[in-house]
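Model it.
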Amino acid sequence: MQFGVFKYRNFRFLWLGATVSASGFTVGNVVMEWMIYHTTHAALLLTLFGVVEFVPMLMVGILAGAIVDRGDRRKLMIISDLVRAGAMATLAITVLFVGFELFPVFVIVAVISVFGTIFEPAAGALLPSLINDEDLSNANGFLEAGRTLASMIGNPLGGIVIFLVGVASGLIYNSTTFAISALAVGMLTVPSSIRKVHETTTEGSNKLLEEVKSGFTFLASKKPLLIMTVASIFLNFFSFYNMYMVVYVLDILHKGPAVFGIILGSSSIGYAVGGVLTGKLQLNKRPGIWVPFTWGLGGLPLIFLILIPVTTISIATMFFEGFLGGLVNTTFISEVQREVPNEFLGRYFTIEQTIGFSMVPLGITVGGLLITGFGLGFSFMLAGTGTLIIGFMLLLNRDIRGWGRKINSE
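Modeled.
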């Protein structure tokens, strides 16, 4: 593992903020979901919670990219963290002195979603300015690993916090982690040349919507990126299986919550390992080969889960599934950061995120209907086969296969 990326002072602070806030965000989600169901015993409200968390991201995502590209990314990240910290603190105070109210929870969730949609692309767009190009894969790998492991720890931590000290303490913890992230980001030293890029972009821009349009025009001019962005719509559609892993554990493996937690943890650990090893494996030398190949290969674990429904094998299979996810996401993000000009990075990340995630709600709905009508085995086999086909179809495209090779050979 190449820990040399931590030699960068800026990266150490960015990693600290990202990891700590991921832990708090997970704890906060666990606490809010528990509050909703424990108080109302209405599963439908949990679905509504997910919609409220997801929809604002789609509504403001593309505009957020233009804002990130025309503004000071470091300041935007700090503002986003401080707003989220204040929102969670407000909810904690409400719970302490007023009690549980559904409307404030949904409002806070929407606020956190909106400002998270600004924070994430700003962080992704800022990273290439903080370290050397050859360290991007390692940096992204450790960022992904830190967030993943923090989230994995945050799930049981949320339950412990609820049991020992109550829901308000979990919300306060989440608020504190956002504040720590804001402090860490505030310690970043951004090169003056990057500020000049922002100033030039702002002075030469027209209206915000025109900047959004220019982001789409840029994406359309990059054929490999455009194809992969469109492909991600269908890949994310087939990702509905994540929502129904609990059904797999209960109905296929006939196991309880302990095995469910172990399987999810195995996937998270695999993702972290894959992210960290991406730089070591030097997949960035031919990202146009490795990204679609790894995407497609990700369909195999779903098929194995059904063909060999044995607990130990399922745990190993989900580790492999997470490992592939860590490899492909880290490789893809790193190459995008190398190829996309700095002034378009924010818009690209938010456009890709918004378009790619647009099919997730439909996928979850269709997945539920398929499981109800045809069974979980058929549904997982369909998702795995569909993922395999999409990934390997991308490999047939010459533009995709050549993506990144010229840059990496220079």
